[in-house]
Amino acid sequence: MSQLVLRLKAFGNSELAWRFRNSPPVIFAAVALIGLVFCAAAASLIAPHNPFDPATLNIMDARLPPAWIDGGSSTYLLGTDEQGRDILSTIFYGMRVSILVGIAAVAFSMTIGVALGLIAGYLGGWVDTVIMRLGDIQLSFPTIMIAFFIDGVAKIVMPIGMREEMRFYVVILAIGVADWVQFARTVRAATMIERRKDYVAAARISEVGNVRILLAHILPNTIGPVLVLATLGLGVAILTEAILSFLGLGMPPSQPSLGTLIRAGNDLLLSGEWWISLFPGAALVLLVLAVNIVGDWLRDVLNPRLR
């Protein structure tokens, strides 16, 4: 316990903590991000209703406006959708799906990109050329096109009964495959610098295997930029998932994300039920904005050239 207290005190006196305390926008973004993640993680505990339990839904409560508008009900603070589901509760549950998809997609793309970047930067030669040219080809295809392709292949390969259940993994695969190149390029550049240093030469002289050199020596020295990219990539992944869901390629209605909720509400905008899509859209904007602000701050703090 005493060591933990000493470490916390050391962190409180560090430059990182000082810069955080003197950055009000970053503090606001961090607090908002923590609050949104908490609401998503504890949705089943703090949500006023369970919007996906048919036994609790009342069709007579469908399309109720927010509580502060005439015709609204205090039971449904942000109103209800066309099925009588509480908008606030659907935002909590939908945000949980969006965050999970974003984290899983970033982890997948980071794993692929870091592995290929280490191999390309360490071995060089034709291996480096092949991996980087594959990355160039990858960048020539937009994420939407890759998602269409993967979704089409999944529909052909999977049985009809499994398509809804596997949509979560298909979306993660589509986003992850589209975003690995930036991780590979960053790690490759750092690896090409690190492999020429004395500690790598000493490890080779000591007959340390290449895999151990990559994982135990080079990888820890390249992880800083990777973490920054992962933080910034999380916001992009969440937004990409929302776009795919809005286009009908993302999460199904049985596992709605924020993008799915926005799409459902968009069909009712012309009939005057603006709150069905506005509030999920506002939650998406706030979530992505908070992630991007924290990610930009981390990039500035961890990059010595920007100090």
From TrEMBL:
Pfam families: BPD_transp_1. It is found in: Cell membrane. Keywords: Cell membrane, Membrane, Transmembrane, Transmembrane helix, Transport. One of its GO terms (biological process) is transmembrane transport. The keyword GTP-binding does not apply. The chain crosses the membrane at residues 26-47, 99-127, 139-162, 226-249, 274-298. SUPFAM superfamilies: MetI-like. Residues 95-295 form the ABC transmembrane type-1 domain. CDD domains: TM_PBP2. PROSITE patterns: ABC_TM1. GO terms for cellular component: plasma membrane. It is a multi-pass membrane protein. Its main location: membrane. Belongs to the binding-protein-dependent transport system permease family. PANTHER family: ABC TRANSPORTER PERMEASE PROTEIN, OLIGOPEPTIDE TRANSPORT SYSTEM PERMEASE PROTEIN APPC. This is ABC-transporter permease. It comes from Aminobacter aminovorans.
